[in-house]
Amino acid sequence: MTKAERLQVYNKQKRREKYLRSLKSENCRLRRIWSTMKNRCYNPKAKRFNRYGGRGISVCDEWLHRSKEFICWARANGYNDNLQLDRIDNDKGYSPDNCRWVTVRENSRNRRSNKQMTIDGITTCAADWSITLGISQFTIYWWIREKGIQYAEQRISDLIKNKVRG
Fold this sequence. Notes:
By secondary structure, the protein is mainly alpha-helical. The chain has helices spanning 3-42, 61-64, 67-76, 104-109, 126-133, 137-147, 149-165; strands at residues 84-87, 99-102, 116-119, 122-125. The strands form 2 sheets. Strands 1-2 form a two-stranded antiparallel sheet. α1 (3-42) packs across α3, α5 packs across α6 (137-147) and α6 packs across α7 (149-165). The model has no long low-confidence stretch (mean pLDDT 85).
């Protein structure tokens, strides 16, 4: 084998090792997500158990004891290192039909503590309405706290109408 051929084989091995390390790293993060998901649902001593297992949130049988099933689902459903696992319906458990991968921003919009408001048939949270209207979300939260959600929805509706006219 010539020096050039040996170098080519060496470079191919290095690329393969790098690829395998990246898979191992990805698997570590996914396994950590899987483990944390189970811990929140089944360990009463977990920091956030009351928000998950304490409310009846569980992990589907398919994922509960088989991390490989969860990892395969994750890879087939858009997983990447910049995304977080999100439950579409916060009152349902972790399962393939109720989970998705979302950005931090999207995940923060899908919290039980968010105030959802419907204006002209569009339902979204106060933070999204504030971006749409160019006002502070804290103004909207003040309206809700001080005057009630109906008042806040009416104010937002009026602002939308004024924006359309203006």
